Structure formats: C-alpha cells, structure tokens
Amino acid sequence: MSKTISGFSKLSKSEKIDWIVKTYFSDDTNAKQILTQYWNADEKLQQLHDEFIENTITNYYLPLGVAPNFIINGNTYTIPMAIEESSVVAAASKAAKFWMDRGGFKTEVISTKKIGQVHFKFYGNQKHLEAYFTFIKPQLLEEASPITSNMEKRGGGILDIELRDKTSDIEGYYQLHTSFETLDAMGANFINSCLEQFAKTFKTKALYFDGFSSEERHIDIIMSILSNYVPECLVKAEVSCPVEALAENSKISGEAFAKKFTEAVKIAEVEPFRAVTHNKGIMNGIDAVVLATGNDFRAVEAGVHAYASRGGSYSSLSHAEVKDGIFKFWLEIPLALGTVGGLTGLHPLVKLALEMLGKPTAKELMQIVAVAGLAQNFAALRSLTTTGIQEGHMKMHLMNILNQFEANDSEKQNLVEYFKTETVTHSAVVSALEKLRS
C-alpha cells in the first residue's frame, strides 16, 4: 500500500485512523485499539482536544503531578508539573521541603519587555532611510492603534520602535526592532498582528515619501515576527541560609556541602559540556510547570538557551556563592509567559493548574516557574555532590523497569521492598525479577 496520500486533512477522524493503521501497522486491529483507548468518553471534551491541532487521531497523555511545600516570598504553593521523567517531581518536592525551614525562595521580576521585528531590505541611501523612519514612526503607531487599543487600556502596548542597521551582516538588511508590554498575555498573536501592520504601513507609505529617489521607494519586506529571545523579560529566584544550616545529617557538614556545591556550579559556568546537562536539569522543572499551565515550552526553551549563550559561550543559568558565612544560590532567566489567552482558557487541566496556583498574573507565574527550575537544579546538584545522581533517580526509575517487564502487584511489592537496601540498575532489577519468578 502506498504511504503517500492526497486530501488527508479532509478525511474524518475515523478515516484518518483507518488509513494510518492499514498503511503502517502489521496488526491494524491492535494499533486501532491503542489509538482509540485514549479517547475521552466525554464527546464534548474530546472534540475540544481534537480541535487544538490538525489531523488529530488520539490524545497523548503525560502525567500531571504536584510538588507541595514551596514557600515563595512568604506564600505557600503546591506547584503542578506535567512531565514523564522519573524523579523530577520528587526532587522538586524534596528541595521545597529542604528550603521550607530555611527561609523559602525569594523572587523578583526584573523586567517584562518582549520583542518583535520587521525584517526588510533597503539598498538606497541610509540617511534617506533614517529620515523616512523618523517621518513614518508616528504613523506606524497610529495605524496599529485598532490592534493596540484594548491592550493599552489595560496598561500594555507598544513600548518603542527602533530602526536597526544590520547591513554589516547582510547587504541591505535592516529591522524595525519593536518592544512590547503584553501584561498577562504571552502576546504572540498581538505582537505579530502589530508587526504585520507596521510592515504594511512602512512599505506602502514609502512609495510616496519625498525624501526617497524613485528607486528607493520600493522596500522589500522579508518577514514580520516576534522573537522568542526575550533577554529583557527577566525573573530572578534565589535561596540563602547560613552555611551551617545546610547540614541535614552527620554525613557531610554544611561547610563541606557548600564548598562542593559552589564548585559544581563554577564548573557549569565554564564548561559547556557540563553546562548543557546542568541547564537541562533546570529546564526539567521549568518545562513541567510551563506545560502544566498551558504555555509554550518550546519558546521558553529556545529563549533560555540563547540567554545562556549571551556571553559568547554556553554557560550555567544558575550561580552560587558563600560570602560572610551565608550560602546563596540563584538564577536569573528570561520567561515570556501568559495566564490569559491560548490554552489557558480552553484546557480544563490548565484552568485547574492555574487555580491551584491562586490564579496568578503573568509576573507571578514567572516567579513560580523560576523557582521550580531553581529547586530542580538544587536537588540535582545536591545529589551529584553527595550521594551521586543514580541512587535517587534509579529508585524512582524502578517502577518503570518493573512495568516494562509486566510485573504484577505482588512482584512489585516484593522488589520495591528488596531494592530499599540494594543498588537499582536495569540488570539488577531484571535479575531479581527472574529470580522471584523462578
């Protein structure tokens, strides 16, 4: 059977599934059963999910867990996290509990500026272009006013428009570099609509600008699009306590822990191979909350990793120091988030997640998300510099291995108890399970 098809999008959902299972699966009955078992029995809810994207054939589930006991600026939160990776929620919860008795997390939003750009080509006299920009700038704002009026009523809108010369990089390349305040909306649609209006006005009015020669009046608009790099949409999260308060048991002193911990962070600051994994751990916490609250984790990931490279090489997003006997651990990251619009008003679980967090503003959500990232990083570094990462992670991964080999409830109970005092590895679990079954 051919694996190409025309008019696929026009098929019904059932017809799409029939073609998929007959074309790609040897056991089409089993494949169809797997796809349909994830449908929601509530037809209205299923239709809602079907309409989120195109060519929907089923739902793809991720666990939604919670990490309690987060103290942020004196307020207590239970943070929702949507993620499939073992130990992430447990690690965040453990870090939250650790800092609960040591002052909790402190956060602040540094800035909330977002960026969009109109990219265009102009091959004439640069001074003429600068004169045209000065002339047209008020009209750019005026002709975008139908788009911006509602946002402006709430205190947001367009902050500024700059003409940027990029001709040293690409011949004839310029930008209308625009900054925005979008308040509680992530703002992608708002920003892109404004930019497309700018482009239309900028190109059309150039045809009649007296300061241009006839050849200069034809401006070539390449594209108009927001940027997911938001280095001025920043939030800071930190924890601190006296060094001696870091000690939880007699295995390692607070001083020894602080020394190894800060050295581990310094390595991530200078070694990109370590920094990537270090920052991935931060994003375990951040992505899980971003996804649970209906935000765009791909945009957040792209912006955060670009920010980690802003100094010319990829480096740690978090930092640590000991000064005057006080241990301090912090991160400062760009987060463009929204609590209105998009999935925030559509997905029932997103609504519940936001309600669980007290229906936060975008600024409040930025702070909560940053804390989740810092907590995850603290937990990972704490394990790495003391017991090692595998002890806790593999114990959490134990259930996945048992499920992979279809262990029954009795076998799970026996082996969970057994591995409380044994090292968990894939081969050790398989060996123990085979021994139990024999």
SSE arrangement:
Layout lengths: L12 H12 L3 H10 L5 H8 L13 E9 L2 E8 L5 H13 L5 E4 L4 E8 L4 H18 L1 H9 L3 E9 L7 E9 L6 H19 L13 E7 L7 E9 L11 H17 L1 H21 L4 H12 L9 E6 L2 E9 L13 H9 L5 H23 L4 H16 L4 H10 L7 H12 L1
Helix pairs in contact: 1-2, 4-12, 5-7, 8-9, 9-10, 9-12, 12-13
Explain what this protein looks like in three dimensions.
With 438 residues, the protein is of the alpha+beta class. Helices cover 48% and strands 18% of the residues. The chain is built from 15 helices and ten strands. It has helices spanning 13-24, 28-37, 43-50, 88-100, 126-143, 145-153, 188-206, 254-270, 272-292, 297-308, 348-356, 362-384, 389-404, 409-418, 426-437; strands spanning 64-72, 75-82, 106-109, 114-121, 157-165, 173-181, 220-226, 234-242, 318-323, 326-334. The protein has a four-stranded antiparallel sheet with strand order 3-8-10-9. Strands 5-6-4-7 form a four-stranded antiparallel sheet. A hairpin with a 2-residue loop joins strand 1 and strand 2 (75-82). The chain is globular. It starts with 12 loop residues before the first helix and ends with a helix.
The SS-based structural class is alpha+beta
Average pLDDT confidence is 94
Main β-sheet: number of strands, strand sense, barrel status? 4 strands, antiparallel
User: Strand share of the residues?
Assistant: 15-25%
Helix fraction, binned, reads: 40-55%
SSE string: HHHEEHEEHHEEHEEHHHEEHHHHH
How far do the termini sit from each other? 45 Å
Oligomeric state as shown: single chain
Strand arrangement across the biggest beta sheet = 3-8-10-9
